[in-house]
Hints:
Layout (H helix, E strand, L loop, with lengths): L4 H7 L9 H10 L4 H12 L6 H8 L4 H19 L2 E11 L25 H14 L3 E6 L7 H13 L1 E2 L2 E2 L2 E5 L5 H9 L5 E2 L7 H7 L8 H5 L1 H7 L5 E4 L7 H19 L5 E3 L19 H14 L4 E4 L5 H8 L5 E3 L8 H6 L19 H10 L3 E3 L3 H5 L4 H7 L3 H20 L3 H16 L4 H15 L8
Parallel strand pairs: 1-2, 1-10, 1-11, 2-5, 5-6, 6-7, 7-8, 8-9, 9-10
Antiparallel strand pairs: 3-4
Helix pairs in contact: 3-4, 3-5, 4-12, 4-13, 5-13, 7-8, 12-13, 19-20, 19-21
The structure holds iron/sulfur cluster (2 copies).
The site of one iron/sulfur cluster (SF4) has 9 residues, from loops.
Amino acid sequence: xxxxxxxxxxKDLRMKPFIDQAEIHDLIHHTRAPKERVREVIAKSLxxxxxxxxxxxxxxxxxxxxxxxxxxxxxxxLKEEVYGQRIVLFAPLYIGNLCTNxxxxxxxxxxxxxxKRVTLSGEELIEQVKALEDAGQKRLILVYGEHPTYNARxxxxxxxxxxxxxxxxxxxxxxNINAAPLDIDGFRIVKDAGIGTYQIFQETYHEETYxxxxxxxxxxxxxxxxxxLDRAQEASIDDVGIGALFGLYDWRFEVLGLxxxxxxxxxxxxxxxxxxxxxxIQYASQLDIDKSYLVSDDEFTRLVSILRLAVPYTGxxxxxxxxxxxxxxxxxxxxxxxxGGTNIEMGGYAKKKNGAQQDIDLEQFQINDxxxxxxxxxxxIEHEYIPSFCTACYRLGRTGEHFMEFxxxxxxxxxxxxxxxxxxxxxxxxxxxxxxxxxxxxxxxxKIQELPDDLFQEKLKQRLQQIKEGKRDLYL
Length: 476
Ligand code: SF4
Ligand code: SF4
């Protein structure tokens, strides 16, 4: 789908921009945050109600160290209560780095002539997917630059190719997409290919900054991008992911922008985003931005905690841009999904498997957590998190995975947690070395004991036995 503004200006008139820049500035600068009010807002979130923008601004303006500690503690409690101890694992797979845009923060910008441009051929894509399956991955997000080559048909075809690849016991059970905005017809095409989540980050909700850092290509159009997920909804894609790139502008503005985007989708389509991502700017080949808004580690932890409280029912994704120590810290405050074994070099997974050297000129930005999927899984197990490769809802056609997760009372305890255990067992059987297997099963035994219902424990134990006997893809 090639973007032609003269067509879409007419076709998508109903897609009205919804970010009021002045309103957000006003909330940042004029919302007062006495202690009692901050505590009231935390309590509202702990009773599992989404916060308004004004309430989110109360948290943002709470600068006292004691209150910040209370916000973090609240986020930690909410995370434990809502999401339990499971962490969903996935991996990004870059399909092509051709790009007509010139994003100031990205190594793949069109003006960067140093970068090697690659689009994976069908054979190369199969090789990548096999390498990912051989590591134990089950959930991928395919990433595409913005270029006429990567139109809706191409995205649909590559998605279907990925689903078709099987290596040993391995298979990819859920393919999410991170690609450029499409028109409604384009979104319909990718929907029909069986995608999971369609993810588009606004990068910055601050329009002036947006214009400064997007100096060429189709991405210059702030509102075309902002309303992209409305078009996705119109095409029946109700599983969408939003995000902001922290470090381009004031983090407080971006948090409120994300909350506004969430409110908008909920108000208009009755379903909020499935996930929110909050990557922080890292080194990229030819990085060219105003560095005064870069976000410190303390601010980062704080903003993730505020987001957790603001949108209790939205999955939060933390990527391998962050180093392992920050990832471990932030996991406490509300993250529910992380990538593992990430390699963002074009063609990187198969290359690494074959022992070849990494090439920074084939990467979009710098990754700071280079641990393998196995190392991350082991680390999670040692911290008593249950690594989850669950895709049960998607496979059972339980539509609106996100909807199920939170609208059915006890769903997470009855389904997500046990399914996390079953998928972990599959991983332990098929991919883990003996020491990890032992630690993993120890954790599984402990978590089963914690389940309240004896009958349910029995059922789960039976499935685990079936997995040990070689059955796969079992879920509840
Ligand atoms: Fe292209 Fe995306 Fe990089 Fe922008 S961020 S230059 S759209 S690959
Ligand atoms: Fe997601 Fe459904 Fe699995 Fe829960 S049971 S983790 S909602 S796929």
